[in-house]
Amino acid sequence: MAHGSKRAKTTAKATTPDGADSGSMSAQPQLFIPFQTGPSLERVPDDVLHEILSYLPTLSERHVLFGYRGVPPVIHSTTLVRTSTLRALSQTSRILRSRCLAMAWRNIELCGASLPKHNVTFYRVIGEATQAGVRVLKACPHLLPLIQTVSVVLTRFRSAEIIPAFAACLATLPNLTTIQVIHAHSQMTTAIKNAFEGKRFPSVRRISLPCSAHEIIKSCPNVEEVMCTEGNGSTIIGSVIKGNCHEVRVLKGIFAPITRLVKVLPNLKQVSVDMGRDMTPLTSFPLLDTIEIFVDDDVRQDLPLREVAAADVKQASKILKENKSQAEKTLIVTKWNDVSDVNPIEFGADEQFMIREVIKV
Fold first, then answer.
1. CB 97 within 8 A of CB 132
2. Whole-number Å distance between alpha carbons of 325 and 302
3. Stretch (H or E) spanning 34
4. Could you say which of 52, 73, 193, 317 is the most buried, measured as most Cβ atoms within 10 Å of its Cβ?
5. CA quadruple 198, 199, 201, 202: dihedral positive or negative?
6. Average pLDDT per run of 10 along the chain, which is 361 residues long?
């Protein structure tokens, strides 16, 4: 009996989804990647970590000076990425918390907002953010000693409730050295006065603010540097006098007459003036060692600033040479480029907006 032919045995070769022969793959050594515990940032040296963080956006002198020109007058949240990143890192692990917590809370920035597309007013967003920030600090007293700089936008949104709470919060910060008011509504002087009356911030050494917020200065008896960011500074001068702020050494952005300060600030060391302004009153401050001259933003771009302001440089040099100060004497000629057509809060670096020349006398 003839046997039926045997069916040839076939073995289907397994293939991978990309068509490769799995048999040939199994013959190859498998790549073994050991599991590594902990994020790699934990092992980055401090100086390298600081270098990385330095490239992240943060508030700069430009934002403090021109924040009020923004539409709306707030700092976009993308500018505050460095602080938000540090706070995220401080909540990642115990090691990063120990390294980043102090840096994360060194600055309190109650001036930024990412406004939604639907119709929500900026002052409501800023007001609610300020309320939330105050609540966080009240609930976390261990953070209070870490805070050194507070930047804020003050609006009329629930001002009778928010501004007193904010002022009370500032009074709980033992190491606060700098207050930066980016913007304050022009009709808030009385609300700010009532909220800050009786408050004292003895640790504050630097304050930047518009004239509409001048009442805050009275609460800073030991302030050493005062910068006016909006207005001519006449009301700020009045608050320096009324607040007995005798420790002021530096006045910036104040272009109103300062002769009233001669007896109040005998140790004044630095002032700023507009180009073309008579500097004769500055001879009454015997310890001046630095004069900053602000050049008009419409002058020729191709000339050195010291040539543009030659007459002012000559007059300022004479004043510094003839006074009693024994310190090194310096002239600073500064020009802020026209930012009327560009929102300085969102575009470019400081160098695009500012040119500065330093002249030793």
1. no
2. 35
3. none
4. 73
5. positive
6. 46 46 48 53 87 87 72 76 91 91 93 64 86 94 96 92 96 97 91 96 96 96 95 95 96 91 94 91 95 85 87 95 94 77 46 80 91
Q: Residue 5 phi/psi, 5° resolution?
A: -65, 135
- Given the structure tokens 């934002």, which residue do they identify? 63
What are the tokens at 315?
């007059």
In the prediction, which pLDDT does 30 show?
A: 53
What phi and psi, each to the nearest 5 degrees, are found at residue 232? Answer: -90, -5
333 token code pair = 């000629």
Decide: residue 195, CB within 10 A, 0-12 exposed, 13-18 middle, 19+ buried.
Answer: buried
10 burial (CB, 10 Å; 0-12 / 13-18 / 19+) is: exposed
